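Moderator note: this is an archived Q&A kept for reference. The question asked for a predicted structure of one protein chain; the sequence and the answer are reproduced below.
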Amino acid sequence: MIILGLTGSIGMGKSTVAAMFAGEGVPVFDADAEVHKLQGPGGRLVAAIETAFPDTTGAEGVNRTALGEAVFGNPQAFKRLEAIVHPAVAAERQRFLEANRERPLVVLDIPLLFEAGGWREVDKIAVVSAPAQVQRARVLARPGMTVARFESILARQMPDAEKRERADFVIPTGGSLAETREAVRTVIACLAGAEGR
């Protein structure tokens, strides 16, 4: 099995690319979706998050806006949150790998692959990238996003140029969906060839 780490900064189109891999029949582990499940109604992390950050949860699970405000601009609070979330996501990722161990290729969709050290646990890395002005427009169009919040998120992420430099594959998302899909198919073909050697 080849484990491909898929990453990219906020607004680069990583979710779209992950869906393209899934559409080509490649199993995809979506770390963000796992976090949403763990923090959703009845999620395993809700009680621990409420204990660490009072008044940030309710019947619907974690109130992401309230939690965001509790950790925004506070590195210590952010580290506390990561200490709750990261081990739980790692356990789910391990279950995914076990369930798909007979597959020739799997994708781990991990937004902070480089920042959180996950790059050490994958065989190859694909970075999703778009021009900075495209990224900015996409992110600022999101509900509730502000320039300050966008810049705070970017400050915690490795610069796109550095990610591209460290990647085995760069998947461009600044053009058409057809071009991006072709890039995804090229990556799969390259890795399918590598797996057969």
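Archived answer notes: The chain has nine helices and seven strands.
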